[in-house]
What does this fold into?
Amino acid sequence: EAGVTQSPTHLIKTRGQQATLRCSPISGHTSVYWYQQALGLGLQFLLWYDEGEERNRGNFPPRFSGRQFPNYSSELNVNALELEDSALYLCASSSGTSGFDEQFFGPGTRLTVL
Amino acid sequence: AQSVAQPEDQVNVAEGNPLTVKCTYSVSGNPYLFWYVQYPNRGLQFLLKYITGDNLVKGSYGFEAEFNKSQTSFHLKKPSALVSDSALYFCAVRDIQTGANNLFFGTGTRLTVIP
It folds into this structure.
């Protein structure tokens, strides 16, 4: 069974540009989560999507947005990039909304903002 | 509000010795607790979770964790450390009361097992 996949692996942008990150969940998983792992800050929750709807949002500005497609894959968009957006962005998926299912993580997209 | 504390940024242990990685949490309701491990340039791998029931939870690769409600702790343990256990370990909590499924993570503890 294929795991969570993310693309691209690395992304280099300049300040003010937009970045688009993509995630494909494990087959059968309907929930997708996005986390930001910045150096020294651990993992910060960004967004949770389930069945195409945004279910919860972390404490990030509106320039962080995303969506979930009918096939449950997801996209994270970051507009007006700032230097501090440089981080590893991790996507995770889980099989439902029960709350006790573990999340399975992808390898991440390393975003560098110059 | 939910939070997780991993008080040690770095833990060093000799190969073959027992290891403990500490985690304390704060939630308004009952917690679901998780441990994940991250190897260099990789995503997170699930180790174990506590949902309810027995306070001692066994997980992957010989790891276990003990849920202590009175101390609000969920320390990760292994009886005999291997060099291959060297990695970054994250404790995470989900607050059932909020109805939200996202996890709150600690800042991580880097475990180094010395041969």
In short: Chain B has a mean pLDDT of 92. The longest strand of chain B covers residues 87-95. The CA atoms of residues 38 and 44 of chain B lie 5 Å apart. The interface with chain A takes residues 32, 34, 36, 41-46, 49, 51, 90, 92, 94, 96, 99-108 of chain B (CB under 8 Å).
